[in-house]
Each structure stands twice: as structure tokens, then as C-alpha cells.
């Protein structure tokens, strides 16, 4: 049964789409165009890259050398660290897709999600070796870790910008404007969510106080 799964066409397509992420990382213009327009990407591979990114984030928290960071595990909220990746990703994907009508974008919600996940790959590729490296560095060499970490984040950001330009078929200037608008959309969504939860909490507090008042009078 397991061998049949590994030999199936779907599994081979999954592996090919996962390997294609490395092509997107080294050839972003052609890669992200083919990712969606030629259907070289899959949601399974995108989900795998996201999962790997989350795991690398958690493992780097645990195994990064004490010269770089000292972690007090009693104060660490694992779910908060997971949310630090998932929540901004969801905000960006929804905010980006919500503006496609206004900017005449060609990409669909799933394509935006897929391309964004593929664009996150450099973070994992760089963080794994430098996390190991961090356990053998001195204080003077710690700057190498910080520099490489920053490069991985900047490179991932550049890939995501290029990816959005390719899937939405934007020119360079329009894509930069669109990305800025996407960031603004993320802030607006955060504001709406905060307003919504504030109203919900106030509503719950009102009914709780009303219930207490009724119980007191009875």
C-alpha cells in the first residue's frame, strides 16, 4: 500500500512541485510565472514549505547557541511563535487578494497563498545551517548569524514581491505600489479584527452584567 502511494503520479507531482521551489528561489521571474501559469506548483508542496518554516522557527528557538540568544522556556508561548508566522501570512494573502479587483490583478486567492509559501523557502534553507553554526561561534562571530538571518528574510521578501508581480502580471512600478497597498490592507484588517473582538467582548460583558443584575434582583 505504502509503495503504491510512493509510485503514484500524485506523489511524483508533489515531489516535483516541492523541488520546483528551489528553482523559484534561484530563478524567481521564470519560476513564479511557471508556478501558477504552467501549474508547476501544488498546495501540498506549499503546505509542506509552510510546515517546514514553522518547524525551523521553533527548532531555531530551541537549538540556537546561547551566545546568540538565551531562551527562558517558562516565558515562551509556542502557540504565539507559531502564530507569528501563520497570522501575518494569512493577513498578507487575504489583503493581497482583496486588492486584486482594484488593481486588475490576475491571481486567485489560492495562487497568492501558494506563491507566498514558495517565497518563504530561503528562510528555512538559511536558518538550518546557521542554527547549527550558532553553537560554535564566539561573541565576535555572532554578527555572521545576524547578517545571514537578515539576508534570508530580505531574500524571502524579495521573492514574494517578485511572485506577486508574476502571478498578477504587474509591471515593476505597479507591483511595488500594489505591495504597499497590501501592507495597508493588512493594517486595515487588523483594525477591523480588533474592532470586532472589542465589540464582542463588550457585548459579552454587557450580558454577563445583565445576568448578574437579574440574579441579584431575584
Protein traits:
mainly alpha; 218 residues
Helix and strand topology:
Blueprint: H1 2-7, H2 9-26, H3 28-37, H4 43-63, H5 78-98, H6 109-119, H7 121-133, H8 142-168, H9 172-217
Number of individual domains: 1
Helix content: over 70%
Estimated share of beta-strand residues = under 5%
The termini sit apart by 66 Å
Write a structural description.
This protein has 218 residues and is mainly α. The protein has one domain (2-217). The chain is 79% helix and 0% strand. It is built from nine helices and no strands. The chain has helices at residues 2-7, 9-26, 28-37, 43-63, 78-98, 109-119, 121-133, 142-168, 172-217. α2 crosses α4 (43-63). The longest helix has 46 residues, at 172-217. The radius of gyration is 22 Å and the shape is globular. The mean pLDDT is 87.
Describe this structure in a few short sentences.
The chain has 218 residues and is mainly α. The chain has helices at 2-7, 9-26, 28-37, 43-63, 78-98, 109-119, 121-133, 142-168, 172-217.
Amino acid at each position: 500500500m505504502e509503495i503504491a502511494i510512493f509510485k503514484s503520479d500524485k506523489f511524483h507531482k508533489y515531489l516535483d512541485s516541492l523541488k520546483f521551489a528551489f528553482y523559484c528561489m534561484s530563478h524567481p521571474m521564470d519560476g513564479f510565472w511557471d508556478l501558477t501559469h504552467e501549474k508547476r506548483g501544488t498546495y501540498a508542496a506549499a503546505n509542506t514549505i509552510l510546515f517546514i518554516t514553522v518547524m525551523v522557527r521553533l527548532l531555531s528557538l530551541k537549538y540556537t547557541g546561547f551566545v546568540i540568544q538565551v531562551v527562558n522556556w517558562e516565558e515562551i508561548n509556542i502557540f504565539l511563535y507559531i502564530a507569528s508566522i501563520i497570522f501575518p501570512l494569512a493577513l498578507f494573502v487575504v489583503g493581497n487578494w482583496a486588492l486584486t479587483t482594484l488593481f486588475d490583478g490576475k491571481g486567485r486567492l489560492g495562487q497568492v497563498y501558494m506563491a507566498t509559501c514558495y517565497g518563504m523557502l530561503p528562510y528555512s534553507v538559511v536558518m538550518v545551517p546557521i542554527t547549527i553554526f550558532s553553537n560554535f561561534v564566539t561573541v565576535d562571530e555572532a554578527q555572521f548569524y545576524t547578517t545571514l538571518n537578515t539576508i534570508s528574510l530580505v531574500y524571502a521578501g524579495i521573492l514574494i514581491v517578485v511572485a506577486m508581480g508574476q502571478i498578477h502580471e504587474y509591471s515593476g512600478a505597479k507591483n511595488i505600489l500594489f505591495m504597499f497597498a497590501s501592507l495597508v490592507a493588512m493594517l486595515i484588517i487588523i483594525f477591523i479584527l480588533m474592532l470586532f473582538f472589542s465589540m464582542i467582548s463588550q457585548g459579552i460583558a454587557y450580558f454577563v452584567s445583565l445576568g448578574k443584575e437579574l440574579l441579584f434582583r431575584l
